[in-house]
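Trying the structure run again after the queue cleared.
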Amino acid sequence: MLEEKVLELIKKQEEYMINMRRTFHKYPELSGEEFKTRERIIQELEKLNIPYRLLSGTGIIATIKGKYSGKNILLRADIDALPIQEEKFNLKQAKECVSSIDGVCHACGHDAHMAILLGTIKVLKEIQNELHGTVYCCFEEGEETNCGIDTMMEALNDYTIDKCFGLHVYNKLETGKINIEPGPRMAGAIGIGFDIIGKGGHGSRPDLSINPIIPAAHIITQINSAFVNQIDAEETVTLGIGMLKAGEAINIIPDSAYIGGTARFFNKAEGEKALKIIETISKNTALSFNCDIEYEKRNKIILYPVINDKTIALSTQEKLKEMCGEEVLKDCNKWYASETYSKYLEKYPGVLAFLGIKNDNLGIGAEHHNSKFDIDESSLVLGVCVEIAFVLSD
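Done. Tokens:
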């Protein structure tokens, strides 16, 4: 059977994937600057005679066309790193591999995503003459800052896509397990960022000034209260005000105050409602204190939630069970982080899977975007298994 052949091929890619993951990890590049990363991906594609398209920036779309007609399938991996200084130790011991670039590291797992997709490509190349349909392998630029997603979406307008698949390593799920559930899996994100414009003056005569700090305080507490009283109690919308900046001296009233943060949601309608609440309260409160308000471009819904298609999630589960057994599947909670992969799911039916990388014995389990973040590399094989299962599923 094809599935048995595939499993043997996947196991043969383990050392290759570990080496690729460590290469990417050792030489990370920030969002929009992944030029050497792209060069290395191109080298691997050219070794296999895989045709590819270079996008403006650093994105790539590689194409594997099967011998037989079938569905057009999209697989995606992100390629950028984070501006974080990596620690040499995880939660327990020295890491197998550490970034060689000061202040930059793959603290989210995109190095593993690239290695897994390259492993999948090698397997697909081996079974190309038995493959039905076409597989488009997307290496996406700048997921962390969203700087490459629009370019990728525009390029994909040139292709017919029947279904899509994305994978994210996950520190809350143990190695050897994978989660593929229907419905909301990662949160949508609202950007909060605006200046309240008042009139500066001496702190001894606040009546001669227009103090923007006062309405700023009211805005924060009123948004918090409004979320409690206006957001559907059956839904979750979190409010994370992370910044309030105003003034440089204790006896000088500043000209402006800045409020910044995010809100996260899993229901599109409630997310849109939350943004309206933020804008209504901030504008009206500022006006009631004779202040103006200036919104940043990021004060909007930045990303909608990642919502998995039920039919595709279940069919992928079934194919993975056939290949690896039911025991590899595990339920887990939704993830409150946000992902540009939501853009793919707005356009095509598909799923995002969580791949377990946690291993307490090895000290692996630190949060994503953390200097101690690490990956159990034995998870990479299961990552290829689920991508191949998706390709082969109905």
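The chain has ten helices and 16 strands. Worth checking whether this holds up in the mutant runs.
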